[in-house]
Amino acid sequence: MEQAKNTKKKIVVPQKPGMNLVVRKKVFDVKKMVIILVIVVAALLAFAKFGILDQLDKKRAAQRELDEQQQMLQAIQLKELQYGDLEARYGRYSYGWMDENEASMLQREKIFGVIEQILVPKCVIESLTLNGNQMSLSIRGITLDEARELVKVLEADENVAAATVYSAVATDEKLTARINMTVIFTKEAAQ
After folding, report:
1. CA–CA dist 38, 167 (Å, integer)
2. DSSP character for 161?
């Protein structure tokens, strides 16, 4: 058994009798640091240019354009204010030759709208006289029943105050008639 004890190997555990407290200084690689610094500075400059300065330039350009538009608007408004004086000064030269009825004819778009939309599609207008807000006309090509319906349509229009037929004569066997009528327009349409 003794030999068996001797045959067992003895396990050796390493031991360190002291401790190494020496710290090696890290040496910075200057080339790597310069490259990193250049990349960081370039990124900051790109952000400042594209993220801040370009946005400020766009804002300034938009503000400049707005200022120009406002100046143009003010100039137009000033000219518009001066137009009333100009119209009064030159109005007597261009409108002075017209009498009151002729001058009111300049504002007759509603009356002509009634003529074009209601009368022209339904009949033939032979003559038409417009004096103030009263229109006298002679029409043909419709029957007496159609004339009655035409009067109803005219009176239903917002621009017409009244419409009356004052004479009607049958002209042929189809019972078409020559009709003389008066249409009185509202004051708003006549002015």
Report:
1. 102
2. E
Are 151 and 163 contacting, i.e. CB atoms less than 8 angstroms apart? yes
DSSP one-letter string for 49-110: IIIIIHHHHHHHHHHHHHHHHHHHHHHHHHHHHHHHHHHHHHHHHHTTTS-HHHHHGGG-HH
Question: What gap in Å lies between CA 128 and CA 37, rounded to an integer?
Answer: 93
- Hey, what are 44's tokens? 């900051």
Phi, psi dihedral angles at 169 (to 5 degrees): -130, 125
Helix (H, G, I), strand (E, B) or coil at 38: helix
CA–CA distance, 140 with 128 (Å, rounded to integer) = 12
In our burial notation (b when 16+ CB lie closer than 10 A, e otherwise), range 56-71 reads eeeeeeeeeeeeeeee
- Report yes or no: 87 and 104 within 8 Å, Cβ to Cβ: no
Model confidence over 83-135: pLDDT tens digits? Answer: 777 766 665 555 455 556 655 555 577 888 888 899 989 899 999 988 878 88
The model's pLDDT over 173-182, given as tens digits with 9 standing for 90+, comes to: 677 888 999 9
